[in-house]
Amino acid sequence: MDQQHQLSKTSVALHWIVALFIIGLSIVGLVMSKKEIWFLYPIHKSIGTLIFALILIRVVWRVRQAWPKPIRQYARYEQVLSKIVHWTLITGTVLMPISGMLMSGVGGHGIALFGWELVAEHHSPTQPDQALPYSVFWAGVGESGHEIIAYILIAAIVLHIAGALKHHIMDRDATLRRMLGQDVSEQ
Ligand code: HEM
Ligand code: HEM
């Protein structure tokens, strides 16, 4: 159970594992699509699909535990900003894998977990090297969604890290140390 002076091991572990994968997948996603590094696509898709399971567990855990209570009374603007950023982060982490699977699965490119096929590729009979979308509309929604949500999520992550560093370095409070698993009841 999360407590105001100490977060549970589950909350801490889920936060950092999902955070590292989201940051890693965002960097790989941007690099592979801008530089057209094709061998990274199946790796990005496999890890993104697998991490979706952990993301769902994290969301259920967070809903059951409620948000961690602030360690002290923050300024009103900080409370509002951190609520908006936390909601954007958690919603973005759910929507990124969903939009990615929509783009790849419905787009005819297929989804596989390191070679183990989940959704078959779908090819045009006349141009066998071209993927044929099952639905052009939904594949487009997935593709645009994945890109737009990626930029919103990356902006939220930058704000979030800046906020965590502000608490740690400028305010010198225990917000970051609590997320690192420490008991901060004495501070
Ligand atoms: C779990 C979290 C995920 C994150 C944070 C993430 C992040 C990103 C980012 C930042 C990009 C570059 C922006 C763009 O072109 O859309 C990207 C591209 C891409 N992602 Fe993901 N992704 C995730 C999951 C997935 C999944 C599950 C799939 C498919 C099964 C997928 C398939 C793709 C593909 C195919 C591209 C290249 C799009 C293009 O070339 O235009 N992603 N991803
Ligand atoms: C180096 C990167 C990161 C640092 C230093 C960091 C730090 C923190 C800290 C200190 C808190 C506690 C805030 C509080 O007590 O009010 C927190 C909470 C949170 N962080 Fe991060 N974080 C990082 C990356 C991420 C990423 C990449 C995501 C998601 C995409 C994320 C999502 C969240 C969410 C949703 C919360 C709310 C509490 C929870 O659900 O566990 N964080 N983070």
Automatic annotation (TrEMBL):
This is Cytochrome b. The chain crosses the membrane at residues 12-32, 38-63, 84-106, 148-169. It is a multi-pass membrane protein. It comes from the Bacteria. Its main location: membrane. It is found in: Cell membrane. Residues 9-181 form the Cytochrome b561 bacterial/Ni-hydrogenase domain. Keywords: Cell membrane, Electron transport, Heme, Iron, Membrane, Metal-binding, Transmembrane, Transmembrane helix, Transport. It holds the Pfam family Ni_hydr_CYTB. Belongs to the cytochrome b561 family. Its cofactor is heme b. It comes from Undibacterium flavidum. Gene3D superfamilies: Transmembrane di-heme cytochromes, Chain C.
